[in-house]
Structures are given as C-alpha cells and as structure tokens.
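Input record, target 12 of the design panel.
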C-alpha cells in the first residue's frame, strides 16, 4: 500500500503527510489483542486515524481512536447509528472498544482522497461532479430511510475512491449523526459551541430548531455548490458570522462563478439552500431529478395539464385494482391508488406517473428518484409497496425492508388481498434473514 494515498479519516482531519510521521500510538502496537497498528493516517478534532491489521480476520482496517473530551458512549453511538445504514456509498463501521483507557472504532479502509482535497485543486466540471453527487444522494437517502441524519455532511466527510474503473464517492464519519426520531434538540453544546461545521450547517442547526433529513439536504446543496464553483455560497469573518450569514443574506447565484453552468442545476442547488426546510427538495435524489428536469414549455394550452393530471390519476386508480382484495399473484408488481385530493397536487402526480413508468420498465433507480419526490402525505400503501419492490429488485435489502415495514404500518393495507399481505410478509422475512446472514445484495432474481 503506497504512502501517497489519503485514507478515510475523521471530520476536520489533515492528511498524515501534513501532520508528521506518527500519532500517539506506536507502529506495531497491538490494540485490544486484535488490531496491529500499521501506520498513522490522519489527525482531527475528535482523534486520530491509523491503518491497522485485523489479526482475527486477516484484513486491513482503519482504526479511529478517541481524543479527550469525547465520551466512549459517543463512539459506541456512532457505531450503532452507522450500522443502521447499509449502502455501498457509506463507509462501513465494524467494531468499538477501548484499550488502556482509550476508546476506538474500526472501520472500512478506503483508498482515495477526501473530496475537500479534490476541491482544493479547483472546481469540478458538471460532467465530473454529477456522478459523484448521484452517489452521495443515494447514500444520504439510504441513511434517511434508515432513520439516521448525518448533521455534518461536508467535503471532508466524503472520500473519492476508484471502483470498477470509475471514481465513486462515499460518505464517512457519522460521529455526530442523530436518529431521525430524536427530539431535535438545539445544535449547540457547552458554552454555545456549535455541533457541526459552520460553513455547511443548515439554518435550523444554528438557530436551535429541529434537525430533520432536510438539514442534510441543505448541506448537500452547499457541497454541490462548492464542487461546481470552487467557492462557498456564504462568507464570514469568523465561524459565527459564517454560520449566521445564511439567515440574513441570499446565496450568490452559481452562474456568477460559472456563467455557462446549466440553469437547471443552479436552480436545484439554490433550492437546497432555502431557509425554510419545508421549501427544500424532499430528498437529495430529488435535487438531482430537479436539476435534470426539462424547463417548462411556454405557450402550452391551459387545459393540457389538468387533463394529464386527471389521466394519471385515472390510470393509477385502475392499476390499484390489481392488488385489491382477491387480486391474485400480480400483487408483486402492483401500483398505487392516488386519492382524489391528490388531483390538486399536479407536481406529485407527474412524479408518481413517471415513477410508475420507470418501475414497469425495470428502471428501478429512476423509479425511486421519482417516487421520492411525491408529497409524503400522498404516498399510499401501494406506492410504499412499489418503493420497497424497487429497492429489493435493485439489490438494496435495507431500504426494501424499511419501505415494506412502512407499508405494513400505513393505514389502508387491510384493503390489500390476503395473498398480497402474505407476499409482503415473505419478502420481509427473506430480507431479515439475508441481513442477519450479512448479505448486502438484494434478491434481484426473486419473483
């Protein structure tokens, strides 16, 4: 393993080449009787990161040790939260423990460089940034589906690695992540110390309001802005000014930095930076879909949109008949009924119809992107069923299990045939068994 590569590290870390030859652990030290320290990689605000050899599994890992001021319970909490997220775009955490009074975590060792280092060399073109943002959006959506909010999403917590001949982006460091069902306590601790990184924090983190998945969407927008422009949307003389600027000033348009940037991308990224969380796109993947959406056509007769919406609703209701009581084996490809109140929500219906078409054509990634943009209140049980099926068939068991369980918990599944309920129960049992056995791939060949 060469020394010119930067490996996964903590938030606010500095590559090892810049901080010296070693940290506080001597090379060759045996940690907890299992991990041998190979070399020092990086230092950060929470601790140090080393490459280590796992003697039990005979494999290299990253070993992250705790610095004073951070509790062992926080380390364990990081492991517990990160383990809830099963996605190829999220760095895997393995074990937590202590050695000679020092707490540590072990995690997947990644060859590559932080996104922050790539941005330091200059802004990314849209062609280079778009696939990386797609990776990151999928990973954030997986975390949110698992009930985890990152709260410190930034370029330092993204690793760029080479896989299958392409550069992929992976999210690291869930050290200050919090469950989505947390009470949303203020993002401050101690003497007004801000938890997170001010340049990337959402307004609600600064003002002490509830933290939600929309908080990560805001940070995703800041990261996308910086990737494409090489600059941050807000500036300040110090951390506090930088953190509060977003409450009083508007972000500078991206096209002032990059005049030829696609207008759809600019609009999508600026939408992420709305002060009101409810005004932001509903998910990170929805940001990409918004960026790719064609501009509205001018001069369209006013009757066309209502007709299209009514047509979509009619088709959806007809398809729902496939999983009504007594439907039969076709329940596994069922679609959702959109209630009459949805007719007034043209945008949601358009996304719903696009998702249905993608699903029928087995373009599951595209189907999920569209379904995720449907208003949460309009997601019927059968739509949740189709979202679960899309994730299952694309090989993502964790999210499939999440949406199957949401389907079961939603009001209305009693309207599904007994056979349909049995199919869902069997899918849940299969997915639970696969995850219990450490299987990360879905059952793409399942009916």
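The sequence produced for target 12 reads:
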């Amino acid at each position: 393993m060469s020394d010119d590569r930067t490996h996964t590290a903590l938030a606010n870390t500095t590559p090892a080449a810049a901080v010296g030859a070693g940290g506080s652990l001597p090379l060759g030290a045996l940690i907890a009787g299992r991990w041998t320290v190979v070399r020092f990689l990086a230092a950060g605000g929470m601790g140090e990161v080393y490459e280590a050899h796992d003697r039990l599994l005979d494999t290299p890992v990253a070993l992250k040790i705790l610095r004073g001021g951070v509790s062992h319970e926080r380390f364990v909490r990081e492991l517990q939260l990160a383990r809830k997220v099963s996605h190829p775009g999220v760095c895997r955490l393995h074990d937590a423990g202590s050695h000679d009074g020092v707490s540590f975590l072990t995690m997947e060792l990644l060859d590559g460089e932080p996104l922050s280092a790539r941005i330091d060399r200059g802004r990314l073109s849209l062609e280079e940034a778009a696939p990386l943002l797609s990776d990151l959006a999928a990973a954030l959506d997986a975390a949110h589906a698992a009930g985890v909010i990152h709260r410190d999403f930034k370029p330092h917590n993204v690793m760029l690695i080479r896989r299958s001949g392409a550069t992929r982006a992976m999210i690291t460091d869930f050290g200050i992540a919090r469950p989505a069902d947390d009470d949303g306590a203020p993002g401050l601790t101690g003497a007004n110390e801000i938890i997170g990184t001010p340049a990337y924090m959402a307004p609600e983190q600064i003002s002490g309001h509830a933290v939600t998945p929309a908080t990560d969407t805001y940070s995703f927008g800041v990261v996308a802005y910086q990737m494409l422009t090489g600059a941050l949307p807000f500036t300040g003389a110090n951390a506090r000014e930088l953190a509060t600027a977003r409450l009083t000033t508007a972000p500078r348009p991206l096209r002032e930095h990059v005049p030829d940037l696609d207008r759809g991308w600019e609009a999508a990224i600026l939408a992420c930076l709305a002060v009101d969380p409810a005004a932001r796109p509903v998910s990170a993947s929805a940001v990409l879909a918004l960026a790719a959406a064609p501009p509205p056509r001018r001069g369209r007769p006013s009757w066309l949109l209502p007709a299209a919406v009514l047509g979509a609703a009619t088709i959806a209701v007809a398809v729902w008949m496939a999983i009504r009581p007594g439907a039969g084996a076709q329940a596994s490809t069922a679609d959702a009924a959109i209630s009459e109140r949805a007719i007034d929500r043209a945008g949601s219906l358009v996304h719903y119809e696009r998702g249905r078409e993608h699903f029928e054509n087995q373009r599951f990634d595209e189907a999920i992107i569209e379904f995720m943009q449907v208003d949460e209140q309009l997601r019927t049980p059968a739509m949740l069923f189709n979202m679960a099926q899309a994730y299952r068939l694309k090989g993502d068991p964790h999210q499939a299990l999440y949406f199957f369980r949401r389907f079961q918990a939603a009001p209305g599944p009693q309207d599904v045939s007994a056979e349909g309920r049995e199919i869902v129960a069997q899918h849940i049992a299969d997915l639970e068994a696969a995850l219990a056995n450490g299987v990360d791939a879905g059952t793409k060949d399942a009916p």
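The first helix runs from residue 16 to 19.
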